[in-house]
Specification:
Layout (H helix, E strand, L loop, with lengths): L2 H8 E8 L5 H11 L3 H16 L2 H14 L2 E6 L2 E6 L8 H9 L3 E7 L6 H12 L4 E6 L8 H12 L2 E4 L1 E4 L7 E4 L5 E3 L13 E2 L5 H7 L1 H17 L5 H5 L3 E6 L8 H11 L6 E2 L4 E2 L7 E9 L8 E9 L1 E3 L3 E4 L4 E4 L4 E2 L6 E2 L2 E3 L3 E5 L9 E3 L10 E3 L3 E7 L5 H13 L3 E6 L6 E4 L3 H14 L3 E5 L4 E6 L3 H11 L3 E3 L5 E5 L2 H10 L4 E3 L1 E3 L2
Parallel strand pairs: 1-3, 1-4, 4-5, 5-11, 6-11
Antiparallel strand pairs: 2-3, 7-8, 8-9, 9-10, 12-13, 14-15, 14-23, 15-22, 16-21, 17-18, 17-23, 19-20, 24-33, 25-27, 25-28, 26-27, 26-30, 29-31, 29-32, 30-31
Helix pairs in contact: 2-3, 3-4, 12-13
The protein binds guanosine-5'-diphosphate.
Guanosine-5'-diphosphate binds next to helix 2.
Keywords: Cytoplasm, GTP-binding, Nucleotide-binding, Protein biosynthesis
Subcellular location: Cytoplasm
GO molecular function, one term: GTPase activity
């Protein structure tokens, strides 16, 4: 097997999806601990603590801070290389989250045992559905009282519409939590506070029939456990790898992230069964991760990671081949070679300059605005990866300057910030307005704040008569010209110079569509 194939097959690239407070940060930290990236784990915690202590505004920035430095975390485990891609926490950043989920091969869903399936989890699950992303489930906070495990499985099945296959099963919960049974190996792991850090540090019995186990928990608890396991095995689905890989079934684990409990069982199972990098669709063909030539796509841009240096990093998911430091890659959209100098990898405790990287890994590419979200890279083949959309924003504001002399900086700032993908920026054909579109209202505040902090521009955002947008596409040049002439007052260019229709009302949009049957009005812009 080639080096490239071998390395690709070792990779496990995933994201954690959960409702806020279910324990994503804590679990991330523990996974990193098990992966040996202890310093990194400490810093996740430190940042989070700092975030809680500060004002709302700073909280936002801190949150950004977290997603900046820990947006990709890589660690070796059990002969595999695990890449954990962070998803932004705030609900307003749904689009960003969506795009991160296009860059992973599987997901881990964290559920709070007391709260069950919550709203944001439902939304994230819908996104995973679109690509049949395989999902493992961790039911967290078993050290507290919560819903009955059987009831929770029912809830996941009925609300999320996915079959549950419990892999571990809790013995009690809250104060009565004694441990978990591994339903596939039969092993019992005892719950002991302040321990469970490694297998050596845990008390493990080979099965519930081990007399030492009975001696430890007593005949009454054991008899109840036997009854419960019989019930569970009758009422739930056995684990089936194929069903998990096709997104029909989710293996379920129980534990307590804050107590390290049940986490290693999850990680062991994850590296064994979670999918390695999968083939990816392009407009012309599917790209296999074991192909020798480097390909990848950009799913996220982060500008001004360090405001002093105005740096800007594009995050590229590698889809095939091998990256080596300093190599050149073909930037398909511009048709130019781009030297991938100083590309970053995200190994262990810090960002590092990449030496090599393979399918499933993420590279951070420094650039000055030439690279956009959705861009494809190759070694020459004009491949365009599909499925990394921009959504039509739902809220609009006109940017107004307090100091009109700063127009240039404002334009630059808005353009650069919109490249990060959270907001979109439109320039109407017929006026000098600068219109900003966002999916959530918080984003306008973020932009105003960052314009001031990073570009020295004092801007306010005022209401504007736009209620929705559509990207315009038309194969017929003449018809497009005609459409453009007739609708000029409603048309604008986005940051990538694509034509967009700005509709003041839904009715106006509907009429415009009816009057121009040859023109396509698209609610998402796939970057092609
Ligand atoms: P996130 O918002 O999903 O990232 O959640 P966090 O990891 O920040 O956790 C939210 C809160 O739940 C924090 O106060 C954690 O300490 C707490 N927490 C996390 N895991 C557990 C657990 O296993 N048991 C208990 N009792 N609390 C937990």
């Amino acid at each position: 097997m080639s080096d490239v194939s071998q390395q690709a097959l070792r990779r496990r690239t995933f994201a954690i999806i959960s409702h806020p407070d279910a324990g994503k940060t804590t679990l991330t930290e523990k996974l990193l601990l098990f992966g040996g990236a202890i310093q990194m784990a400490g810093s996740v915690k430190g940042r989070k603590a700092a975030r809680h202590a500060t004002s709302d505004w700073m909280k936002l920035e801190q949150e950004r801070g977290i997603s900046v430095t820990s947006s990709v975390m890589q660690f070796p485990y059990d002969g595999r290389i695990v890449n954990l891609l962070d998803t932004p926490g705030h609900a307003d950043f749904g689009e960003d989250t969506y795009r991160v989920l296009t860059a992973v091969d599987s997901a881990l869903m964290v559920i709070d045992v007391a709260k069950g399936v919550e709203e944001r989890t439902i939304k994230l699950m819908e996104v995973c559905r679109l690509r049949d992303t395989p999902i493992m489930t961790f039911i967290n906070k078993l050290d507290r009282e919560g819903k009955e495990p059987i009831e929770l499985l029912d809830e996941v099945e009925s609300v999320l519409g996915i079959q549950c296959a419990p892999v571990t099963w809790p013995i009690g919960m809250g104060k009565r939590l004694k441990g978990v049974v591994h339903l596939l190996t039969g092993e019992v792991h005892l719950y002991e506070q302040g321990r469970n850090f490694t297998r050596q540090d845990s008390t493990i019995f080979p099965s519930i029939d081990d007399p030492a186990f009975e001696a430890r928990i007593g005949p009454k608890v054991l008899a109840d456990l036997r009854d419960e396991l019989e019930l569970v095995q009758g009422a739930s689905h056995p684990f089936e790898l194929e069903k998990y890989l096709s997104g029909e079934q989710t293996p379920v684990f129980f534990g307590s992230a804050v107590n390290n409990f049940g986490v290693q069982l999850l990680l062991d199972f994850f590296v064994k069964h979670a999918p390695a990098p999968q083939p990816r669709a392009t407009t012309t063909r599917d790209v296999d991760p074991t192909e020798d030539k480097l390909t990848g796509f950009v799913f996220k841009i982060q500008a001004n990671m360090d405001p002093q240096h105005r740096d800007r990093v594009a995050f590229m998911r590698i889809c095939s081949g091998k990256f080596t430091a300093g190599m050149k890659a073909f930037h398909v959209r511009t048709g130019k070679e781009l030297k991938l100098a100083n590309a970053l990898t995200f190994m262990a405790s810090d960002r590092e300059i990449a030496e090599t990287a393979y399918s499933g890994d993420v590279l951070g590419i420094h650039n000055h605005g030439t690279v956009s979200i959705g861009d494809s890279f190759s070694e020459g083949e004009p491949l365009i990866f599909t499925g990394i959309p921009n959504f039509a924003p739902e809220l609009f504001r006109r940017a107004r300057l307090r100091d009109p002399l700063k127009l240039k900086q404002l334009q630059k700032g808005l353009a650069q910030l919109s490249e990060e993908g959270a907001t979109q920026f439109f320039r109407p054909l017929m006026s000098n307005d600068l219109i900003l579109g966002a999916v959530g209202v918080l984003q306008f505040e973020v932009v105003a704040y960052r314009l001031k902090a990073e570009y020295g521009v004092d801007a306010i955002f005022e209401p504007v008569n736009v209620s929705t947008t559509r990207w315009i596409r038309c194969g017929n040049e003449k018809k497009l010209e005609e459409f453009r002439d007739k609708n000029a007052s409603h048309l604008a260019l986005d940051a990538a110079d694509q034509l967009v229709y700005l509709a003041p009302t839904r009715v106006n949009l509907q009429l415009a569509q009816e009057r121009a049957p040859d023109v396509e009005f698209l609610a998402t812009r796939e970057q092609a």
